[in-house]
Amino acid sequence: MDIAFKGEHLFPGHLGQFFVVLSFGAALLSTVSYYFATTNTNQLDNSWLKLGRWGFYLNSLSILGIATCLFYVIYNHYFEYHYAWSYTSRSLPVYYIVSGFWNGQEGGFLLWTFWQAVLGNILIRKAKSWEKPVMTVVAFSQVWLATMLLGYYIFGARIGSSPFLLLRNAIQAPIFSNPDYLSFIKDGQGMNPLLQNYWMVIHPPTLFLGLASVIVPFAYAIAGLWQKRYKDWVAPAIPYALFSAMILGTGVIMGSLWAYESLNFGGFWAWDPVENASIFPWLFMVGGLHVMIVYKNTGHSYFTGTFLVLMSFIMVLYSSFLARSGVLGDTSVHSFVDNGMFWHLLAFVIMFLALSVVLLVLRRKELPVTKKDEETYSREFWMFVGAIFLALSCFHLILVTSIPVWNRMFNSKVAPPTDLVAHYNIIQASFAMVITILTGFTQFLKYKKTNVTQFFIVTGVYLLVAILITVPVVYFTGLYKLHFVFLLVMLGSIYSLLANGKVLADALKGKFKLAGSAVAHIGFALMLVGALIAAGTRAVVSVNENGAIAVTGFDKAAGDVRENIMIYKNEPVKMGQYTVTYLGDSTSEPNHYYKVNYKRYDAAGKIVEDFELKPHAQISAEMGLTSSPDTRHYLFHDLYTHVTALPIPKSANTGDAQTAASHGDAENDDKNYDAPVTHEIAVGDTIRYREGYMILKGMKKETAIQNIPLTDSDIAIGAQLEIVSNNKTYTAEPVYLIRGKGVYYFDRKAEDAGLKLRLSKILPDKNKVEITVYQQPENKKPWIVMRALDFPYINFLWSGTLIMIIGFLLSIFRRNKELKTV
């Protein structure tokens, strides 16, 4: 028997699901049409081409329809839909509701297919003679992404996961036997506290644009093999490859910025498996891009360039498989759980891998081969070597990151390296050292042939200068304490900066076509310099000399005890060159902010620096304490602070914000204070307490109580109190409510003043009221445990990223200009 559920808004879900099916059908139509347009030998017949275009246009409009319906559901808090309930809540600000759009699996796939649709429409206008075969590949990828959103069962197997799945169909629970179940669902689960950061509003769209853009050079490579136009595809694909490398790299670094600003592990990269997977396609794309340029200039290394470009898109699919299949659920904090799409995602990878392998095998005897060997002292030879090292670097990451995959496939029990971070750091630093050296001395080489004597003289001089600069840098930053391979990376980075700086100087004199690569290499070298110094020599400011924290439950999850200090409210503590004071906390839902004042004095005792940091945290039953840092940014270093332990109340207050009702919660909370003191006062009177005083400024009738609707028969009165404590002023308004024959009071806390205030009686015959004052005991002052780190020269990392992006843009402009002149 069907249940007639009350209050459900089914139309946007039905409409959205219609667009999902339409997007799949339109993408399939476009793929088939473009395929026949490509294989059609009648050049005058454009019917298949027109049908392919209209199919893709319809696919694009369908995707916009899906997105509109999903956003409508999320924005209006229709929690009858599983996606809206799982990833949003009413308390989230609009910009986090927007980011909730791509917070889940389905939203991520929708964002991916949206960007591919945008790029496909650009290709329809720009690809010219390449449109038919290239768009066949792009539309085929759209078909697969559309299947990820279908959410239908075929022969007992679920195909995709619909963003419009109803909550009652996603979760089996007794509540859904009630036709009015929505009346019990007041809010959604909300967003993971770690994702509530502005970088998560802009990082995923950028990263997904980068991932989606990799399809374009891949499609050109497939089209070149398919149409036997082996040489022709490289030149038009290079600008798109540059764009992919630029946007994908930017997205990855944005993820690092998010981690640095939001996560409390104290850094910007943790070698998490999903983090690793995000750079797989970037490494292959950068390597493939360099070999494509080699082939365009010299005709060498066609197979390698094609292989790397093909692998870059395969790595996009594989990284998506790793993150979304649940296979890394036990090893990554960023991975989605297994939602039954393991084999679906794997089939996506296998299909495009098989397409690439089959075409390479079928065309192996026809692929361009240069019979003359490359000169050892030519730029193209060493660019090829650099690309190979990038690929090897990626293969190492793939091999170790994929250990859970190997174990699942072969039922093995291979264990990852014991110290995984050190393993990655040393191996990847070795690759980075080689690559930085190559980006340096290749600038002194010419295409095809170089004057060997001149090359050795010039590169030797620059290497010597690099050594002379590296020695003091390593000494004064403290890098000499690290593994020697990191010293070599610093040498290579400085050498690359000098060599590419020379090229940039030449470019400014008129050789503008060299500027793009030089600027990109300078940016990459600066990134490595900043990452090396910041991560390798970061200093603990919050040194705990006692080696102990008097807090029950403080453990290694919060960091090394010797790197954390406990500070009580309004009690200054010396911490390195700073004197820190915990001033109190404040709430801006859903975050709780902890105000920490920093002061720095000179030798004469004069304050030379005075500022506040406000690290914030959330406490939830599912995740416990989730802490996010606050950072003081300087030109040459950052001071990074986050909370690692807090006094957690025995019972959480419910109902009105900062309110305890007159029953159980209030009584339990009273135990956290000294014995209450009552005062009968009139408007204008003063109450004095241990650390200050308060004045009753007025009485407010018909005051509002958050989350409690008042009826006409209710009487609610608020006492407007002004509190002065430690030369700071606060306000509080405890409320007295008469409802029927019952009396209820709603306390207000002035956390920073250590007070809880209750309007406990109304005395109309005396024209007074009774205020009950609860004060926190002196020996139970509020406290926090905090950790502070100093990251030297980290701005080199962020500025290097910006410079690298500029370099890619310059290269894109150059390559587009070259295409127009052909």
Question: Topology of this structure?
Answer:
Layout: H1 11-39, H2 47-75, H3 82-87, H4 94-100, H5 105-126, H6 131-147, E1 152-154, E2 157-159, H7 167-170, H8 199-213, H9 215-226, H10 234-262, H11 273-298, H12 302-324, H13 342-362, H14 379-401, H15 403-410, H16 420-441, H17 452-477, H18 484-508, H19 515-536, E3 539-540, E4 565-568, E5 573-575, E6 578-588, E7 591-601, E8 607-613, E9 616-620, E10 624-628, E11 630-633, E12 637-645, H20 664-670, E13 677-681, E14 686-689, E15 692-701, E16 715-725, E17 728-732, E18 735-739, E19 742-746, E20 748-750, E21 755-763, E22 768-775, E23 783-792, H21 795-821
Antiparallel strand pairs: 1-2, 3-23, 4-23, 5-6, 6-7, 7-8, 7-9, 9-10, 11-12, 12-23, 13-22, 14-15, 15-16, 16-17, 16-18, 18-19, 20-21, 21-22
Helix pairs in contact: 1-2, 1-6, 2-5, 2-6, 4-8, 5-6, 5-8, 6-9, 8-10, 9-10, 9-12, 10-11, 10-21, 11-12, 11-14, 12-13, 14-16, 16-18, 17-18, 18-19, 19-21
Give your account of this protein's structure.
This protein has 822 residues and is an alpha+beta fold. It is 49% helix and 17% strand. It has 21 helices and 23 strands. The strands form five sheets. Strands 5, 6, 7, 8, 9 and 10 form a six-stranded antiparallel sheet that branches. Strands 14, 15, 16, 17, 18 and 19 form a six-stranded antiparallel sheet that branches. A hairpin with a 3-residue loop joins strand 11 and strand 12. The protein is globular.
Task: Summarize the model shown.
This protein is α+β, with helices and mostly antiparallel strands and 822 residues long.
